[in-house]
Write the structure tokens for this entry.
Amino acid sequence: KENISMMHAHWILPQGFVAAILKKVFGIPLLVTIHGSDLFPLKSFIFIRLQSFVLGNADFVTVNSIAAKNELIKRFPGYSKKIKVVPMGVDTGLFRKRNIKRPSKYANKKTLLFVGRLSDQKGLQYLIDAMPSIVKEEASAKLLIIGEGPYKPELEKKISESKAKNYVEFLGSLPSSEIIKYHNYADVFILPSLANKTGTEALGLALMEAMSSGCAVIGTNVGGIPSLIKNGHNGILVPQKDSKELAKAVIMLLKNRKKAERMGKNASDFIRRNYSWDKIGREFINIYKSIIK
């Protein structure tokens, strides 16, 4: 009924697999976008075969980070010419620096912020381990955690058994309209992700949104995070699974307000220059045109 010029499937599995079958049946050109969670943890024989089928039938493939591109080419070197890094964009009009007054409960706090799914791969367990050292240097420090996930009971248990229980607050899932407020309350945003058996951080949309909002950020040196954070310029990179280095980086930013503000501004400028949806949208349109022609 519809005159469909092309298909754009997000995630190689299962959406890309369905689209690849449709392409074989109807001959409609296909673009597949890979986000990372559909790639890094899916390493078994059957997943490799399914991924290969999708790539073989796609006209073009985009990935959201260099880390994802390298992993894809390592698995399927024969398809390297049809793979391009085109990250997801950020709504820089929404995620921006704002003049928002802190709620009274945080007025005298040094606020640390995490936003994301609560899984072991996000590395929050190491940030929680770092909290006693942080609080020893900055007694007013408070870690705010936005998000839900299967690892939350483990994190709650860890906090209840540690010296950090009075310095961590779970806020649950919040809409973007609320998250942007916390970006502006936060003194430091932290993404302590890991590279483990469940995968790695392909890029980190929550990190990008925090950077766009002008947060001083700390991230681990895994996956696509180093492509966003230029250490010492627009944020701080630390080794994964290293609570001591996490604590050291947080304390440094809390004690050096001017440096934190400068890094936050550099982070916002970097995202606006490289990851705005205006820029990313134009890249996708050019790919659409090349596929349809």
